[in-house]
Design brief:
CATH architecture: 3-Layer(aba) Sandwich
Shape: globular
Structural class: alpha/beta
Helix content: 40-55%
Distance between the termini: 73 Å
Number of helices: 13
Radius of gyration: 22 Å
CATH topology: D-Maltodextrin-Binding Protein, domain 2
CATH superfamily: Bacterial extracellular solute-binding protein, family 7
CATH class: Alpha Beta
Length: about 325
């Protein structure tokens, strides 16, 4: 009997020790040089250090586990535990909120960040949890989306006949109105498509243009600033619920620090990245007529929102910015 009690106690102690370990997979389509990936790698190191090795992350970048659609499916089923991208969660999973990343709906970066990190962002997170067991755990800066191309794009008319890769149906409508020929493509295939001439242009924030080396196969960065975008960091609800209180405290605190680093890096390094691209590939920067692009886009966004987005969403976004 005494041996049985000792054995049971040993097994119990082993179980407690095992429960302390938290291993998870964080996947993204972003390249390793993207600022979001650099922030995640900093977070990975901080998690291991602050937990004395009890919390360990496997970070898989560059779409090695699939595109964003596949990664979100894996996230919902807890095959991966975390994911970061632009707001693909609203474009792929909650389409009635996709106007949270629509053309010219934010007056500036702070307006958009307030929307995403406040009540509207919580509303999205709650819906994701109810429907897909996914939660937004942080939102970080990403910057404005700009058009890159092989000819200068100063006015909307310059888009006429330009084959441009875009990421969602609303953006397709907007760039069609500019005269472009928009089409979808996974970002993992974009570099090759631009190099081979399948597309003439694409649009992304500066950190992504640099991180995915898109500037190597484009001649111009056109500062259209048509969308303020954000890095939305999501996690599986079951994964979050399985943490101990101490693990969750370390998780939350170190994630806040990593996102703070990301936000500052986007501010500090965007200009530096543009300078690097100009130096390395002689890319030219074009000051586009933002007002002209905005005037065409906004009526399209309004009409799209009436049919496709949650009632009152654009009004809520405007109130936040007033």
């Amino acid at each position: 009997m005494r041996h049985a009690i000792i054995l049971a106690g040993s097994l119990l102690a082993l179980g407690v020790a095992e429960a302390k370990e938290l291993k998870f997979t964080f996947a993204t389509t972003n390249g390793l040089q993207d600022l979001s990936s650099r922030a995640v790698l900093r977070w990975k190191e901080a998690l291991a250090n602050r937990s004395n090795g009890e919390i360990t992350m496997e970070f898989v970048s560059g779409g090695a586990l699939g595109g964003d659609q596949e990664l979100l499916q894996q996230l919902a089923t807890n095959e991966i535990q975390m994911h970061v991208a632009g707001p693909v969660v609203v474009h792929r999973l909650l389409k009635d909120y996709q106007c949270l990343e629509a053309e010219y709906v934010y007056k500036d970066d702070a307006h958009g960040m307030t929307a995403w990190s406040g009540a509207l962002g919580k509303e999205v997170s709650d819906k994701l949890k109810q429907r897909y067991n996914i939660e937004i755990v942080a939102v970080g800066a990403r910057g404005a989306r700009h058009v890159t191309s092989n000819k200068p794009i100063r006015e909307p008319a310059d888009m006429k006949g330009v084959k441009i890769r875009v990421t969602n149906p609303l953006r397709s409508q907007v760039f069609s109105a500019y005269g472009g020929l928009p089409g979808p493509l996974a970002i993992s295939e974009l570099y090759g498509a631009l190099r081979q001439g399948v597309f003439d242009a694409q649009e992304n924030p500066i950190p992504t243009i640099y991180g995915d080396r898109l500037y190597e196969v484009q001649k111009y960065i056109n500062l259209t600033g048509h969308v303020w975008s954000y890095n939305v960091i999501t996690a599986n609800s079951k994964f979050l619920a399985g943490m101990s209180a101490q693990q969750r405290a370390i998780f939350d605190e170190s994630l806040r620090d990593a996102v703070a680093w990301l936000n500052q890096a986007v501010v500090n390094e965007t200009g530096e990245l543009v300078a690097k691209m100009k130096q390395e590939q002689k890319v030219e920067v074009v000051q586009s007529n933002v007002a002209a692009f905005r005037d065409i886009a906004l009526p399209i966004v309004e009409k799209f929102a009436e049919k496709n987005c949650r009632a009152g969403l654009l009004d809520d976004i405007r109130r936040i910015g007033s």
